[in-house]
From TrEMBL:
Sorted UniProt keywords: Transferase
PANTHER family xrefs: ALPHA-METHYLACYL-COA RACEMASE, SUCCINYL-COA--D-CITRAMALATE COA-TRANSFERASE
Protein name (record): CoA transferase
Gene3D superfamilies per UniProt: Crotonobetainyl-coa:carnitine coa-transferase, domain 1 (3.40.50.10540), formyl-coa transferase, domain 3 (3.30.1540.10)
Organism, as annotated: Plastoroseomonas hellenica
InterPro entries from the UniProt entry: CoA-transferase_III, CoA-Trfase_fam_III, CoA-Trfase_III_dom3_sf, CoA-Trfase_III_dom_1_sf
Length: 374
């Protein structure tokens, strides 16, 4: 696998850091997950269990080794530094300044190991007026403006279904780690990555900030191109109370569907771009899709060259034939399902371990190896 031989010390909890290090583990890195004594990573106690641990925890920590250290103890902090001496990557998600106060910040680690790539993931970053403020995903979605773009039928912000700040910051961190490791090949030196969830989420807004950057105004959310102002980028109800989406605004898709429905005359309204003038098209499609059940529409639309999809439930989504055909659902020896790595290499594909560590499971063996002369 691509990352075999890479050692990662993971001091992160919950979601962003573990999601980053999961990708490294899935592609062959040795990831040492450092957990406190007692109950360990709080993620171990989130959501329903289906075996050794909860689904939430195993989805983010499979293939890692669990090392229990009490970083309030001098001896354990010294032990951690010894592990960091042999690490290629260190990831931490403490509040800014905490790692340094514990003696395991970037300056302390890099003095001993100049080649280390050290990542700090926090809500608002290592500097700035919000530096010490605690926040989880929803707060970041709010302060970044993202929540103001996600409106329900009542025009109030709605809680998004996935933690976009967590995931985007993890992926930005992952890309930064890989860039730093590539650069280390020529310089021999690592680097320090300051990843703010706030920054990462704002960076993901590139396609929606046109009105703000050009005219210094809030987008008219329900009249914009991808948030409700286009008939061919919307959610429609069907007769049986289900929903389908149209998600392709190109002229060829508009002409194809409206032509098949006998209303090509409405295509000119779509050609003018998003906005209130598309309301006649929206109303026509709303009335049309309410006339038949979802399954009927999926069969009929499947014969046309248009962008459409059912609004699946999660159980339906994980039975989707395309997802299954691409091997995105893995099953372990105990019958538990896992989400496969999304990065697919032709050569050296990922071989994820489908086993998550018990709390402190590898403490003895890792400590023993640390004390064994090379």
């Amino acid at each position: 696998m691509k990352l075999e031989g890479l050692r990662v010390v993971d001091l992160s909890w919950f979601l962003p850091g573990p999601y980053l290090t999961l990708a490294l583990a899935d592609h062959g890195a040795e990831v040492i997950k450092v957990e406190p004594p007692g109950e360990g990573d709080p993620g171990r106690r989130i959501g329903p269990p289906d075996g050794r641990t909860g689904v939430f925890f195993r989805n983010l920590n499979r293939g890692k080794k669990s090392l229990v250290l009490d970083l309030k103890r001098d001896e354990d902090r010294k032990t951690l530094l010894r592990f960091c001496d042999t690490a290629d990557v260190v990831v931490e998600s403490f509040r800014p300044g905490v790692a340094a106060r514990l003696g395991v910040g970037y300056e302390q680690v890099s003095q001993r190991n100049p080649g280390v790539v050290y990542v700090s993931i926090s809500a608002f970053g290592q500097d700035g007026p919000y530096r010490g403020r605690p926040a989880h995903d929803l707060a970041l979605e709010a302060v970044s403006g993202v929540l103001s773009l996600t409106l329900g039928d009542d025009d109030r912000p709605a809680i998004p279904g996935i933690p976009a700040a967590d995931i985007t910051s993890a992926l930005q961190g992952l890309s930064g780690v890989l860039m730093a490791l590539l650069r280390r090949v020529s310089t021999g030196r690592g680097d320090y990555l300051d990843i703010a969830m706030h920054d990462a989420l704002v960076a993901a807004c590139a396609n929606v900030v046109g009105p703000t950057f050009a005219e210094d105004r809030q987008p008219a959310v329900k009249q914009e191109r991808t948030t409700g102002g286009a008939a061919f980028y919307r959610i429609y109800d069907t007769r049986d109370g289900r929903q389908l989406v149209l998600a392709g605004q190109e002229e060829k898709f508009v002409d194809t569907l409206l032509g098949a429905l006998g209303r090509r005359d409405l295509a000119a309204l779509c050609a003018r771009g998003p906005g209130p003038h598309q309301q006649p098209v929206i109303e026509f499609l709303q009335a049309t899709f309410r006339q038949r059940d979802l399954r009927d529409w999926l069969d009929w639309l499947g014969g046309l060259d248009v962008c459409f999809a059912p609004v699946n439930t999660l159980p339906e989504a994980f039975r989707d034939p395309n997802l299954l055909a691409r091997g995105m659902v893995l099953v372990d020896a105990d019958g538990r399902r896992h989400i496969a790595p999304a990065v697919r290499f032709r050569d050296e594909p990922a071989r994820p371990s489908l086993r998550e560590p018990l709390h402190g499971e590898h403490t003895a063996t890792l400590r023993a190896a640390l004390d064994t002369p090379a």
